[in-house]
Predict the structure.
Amino acid sequence: MVATGLPLSFEDFARLSPAPGGVRQELHHGELIEFPPPKKLHTKIQKRLVSLLEAVLNSAEYGVDKEFPFRPASDYEVWVADVAVFNLALWDQTEDDDYFRGVPAIVIEVLSASNTASEMLDREEICLRHGAQEFWLVDPQRASVKVIRAGGSSTIHDAAGVIESGTLGGSIAVRDIFAR
């Protein structure tokens, strides 16, 4: 992750040219942040999560996607979820040349070596404060998933665990996320 240190508004951010080489750009508290492209394992887990989530969610109410950009709050924020479960009614209200306004119902982050605890806590707080029902931290090294709910409760599920989600209306076996 690279921070440029220049304060930007959403309008400034929207005028930027895409970064070369697959670098992902986000706007955090008015600061342009750049991330390298995800590596193979990260992408495999994202794809598995999308498939597992699609199998259990109510497809009339929710959609799911990876590398999902959204505007959680002020004019100084544009974030990208590794995987997101989002309300289709809100999606339909989004203009084609804009980012999803608000926060997906479930925001999932797949941890990478470059992630810091501070960065993940900031993501969790922003998402839950602005409407996410659940925030998941997927840890490939530990084959575990930490689920934090809007009410403040959190549970760590190991490879033998099952994630129950009212938002999804179903459950996902953690081992299926990390199946090789």
Q: What stands out?
A: The chain has a mean pLDDT of 92.
